[in-house]
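Illustration: Protein SirB1 N-terminal domain-containing protein.
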Amino acid sequence: MRTPIYCRPAAHQLFEAEIANLDTGAGLFRAAFAIALHERPEARIVEAETVVEQLATTVQRRVHSNSKEALLAHLHDVLFDVFGLRGNTDDYYNPANSYLPDVLHSHKGLPITLVLIYKRVAELVGLTVYGINSPGHFMAEVESAEGVSGRSMVVDPFFGGSVLTVQEAKERIEQTAGRPLVVSTEWLPRATHQQWLARMLVNLLSVFTATGQERNMLAMQELLGLLEK
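Result:
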């Protein structure tokens, strides 16, 4: 293992260890949690995993059928109405919005962090969720959900778990990006787990650069370097 110069060793160690598990949702979740350990050394991964497991258990206890549509409805009720998961529109550029322990505590965060929590809980109840690596606004794709012509559906956890048509998703991304999108088969691409982590790190890198936090900026570069090995 590399010895970090700027990144807190515990964050660097867990992040590097979980890179080997990035083919799983659990590995992605743990690697994303590791990013927060740089500034939140007191955070405990077992506590974060317990929160998402409890949310999944609550969803499962409510479902009394094998319908994916019913499962999705209860998932949204628990995450967005009961737990109150939502975007932090008042303090969008706060680094805490990218830190899983903070978001699980405040229930507010960036789109990419909220989608990660949504994905992890959804997977624990038997749904398949991908991140949509669209410009400016990260969203979720729920595979083969019922109710939308038998196709996958787009969900935006930042705005209360709103379910979008493809056209509505395109319009939301255009609004966020501030420019029209070039229509192609790749305009709603699924994010690989490596791309997911890289985008989280680049978001933090941008914030730390803009605010002159040089050590934190260099720490994020060290983590990015692990992804590029």
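Reading the tokens back as a structure: Strands lie at 86-87, 108-109, 129-132, 139-142, 153-156, 162-164.
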